[in-house]
Amino acid sequence: MAKWVLGLTGGIGSGKSLASDCLASAGVDIVDADLCARDVVAAGSPALAAIVARFGDDLLDAQGNLQRRRLRSIIFADAEQRHWLEALLHPRIRDGLLHALAASTSAYTVLVSPLLFESGQAALCQRTLLIDAPESLQLTRTLARDGGDVAQVQAIIASQWSRQQRCAAADDILLNDGSCAALEDQLMTLHQHYLEAAAHVR
Questions:
Q1: Can you give the pTM of this predicted structure?
Q2: 5-197: which CATH number, 3.40.50.300, 3.40.109.40, 3.40.5.50, 3.30.470.20?
């Protein structure tokens, strides 16, 4: 496994992707929990079969792939269904993350996960970084990016840890309520600290 791992998290629409892209451009390997989650429900996978058995095959498109938006509308309307899905997927996602972290070769590795704290994935990390943003801004950004309806985005925000909980748990916090350039400048300062911390464990 990578010797020094930074956990990068934030609520939906906070700017996690911008931050991870910035670190990737600086030569840091990125392990993305969302991409891993897509892999574990790929067409023909055991996890997808279990999801279809529970919710019906109308969740599949013509090619046998999961229609993620349709599933999202179900689980964010019913907490019991969301908890069932998390119990199914989180152990499989964790296994995938461990495999990806083991393959990393950069000075340190970033584990990007919207549920870093909620899922227990923070235990895989030496330090955690929260990209923070006001909920009103999260909502505006998510609707501009993905479309959808306000109620569903609000339900997703409500299902995640609150802003206060994440701020209390994170080692480092960057407020992303301004320009992309401002966030990147702050991030590059932290990047130098992370390089130094990682160098001490090699």
A1: 0.87
A2: 3.40.50.300
